[in-house]
Amino acid sequence: MKVYRCENCSSSFLEKRSRCYNCRSDRLLEYDVSSGIVLDTVQLFATPDNLPETYYILRISSDGITFFCRSPTQIGEGEKVSLMEDDNSICCKAERDQI
Ligand SMILES: [Zn+2]
Predict the structure, then answer these.
(1) Which of 33, 52, 56, 81 would suit a FRET pair with 7, their CA atoms being 20 to 30 Å apart?
(2) Ligand 1 mean position to 18 CA, how many Å?
(3) What phi and psi values does residue 95 have, to the nearest 5 degrees?
(4) How far is the CA of 24 from the centre of ligand 1 (A)?
């Protein structure tokens, strides 16, 4: 998953920008983030047609930014997850599942 960081003030963003919203610098670096920590979880039962009937939305913290991702299984707060992009949303799975 791509993340952008300001070289000047270290602010991070998920969207590509031409300038940092914090300091207006145009020195933004693109880098990859592959894991994060779960802050909290919500289970969804009413989901869009192209997605499973139920899944979890997790709020993830990674490298100073917070964002949401989707998971087919429940993952507890404080657990580490691997991130991947699927179509245009972010998916994740618990790192414990990969061992
Ligand atoms: Zn900045």
Answers:
(1) 81
(2) 11
(3) -65, -25
(4) 6
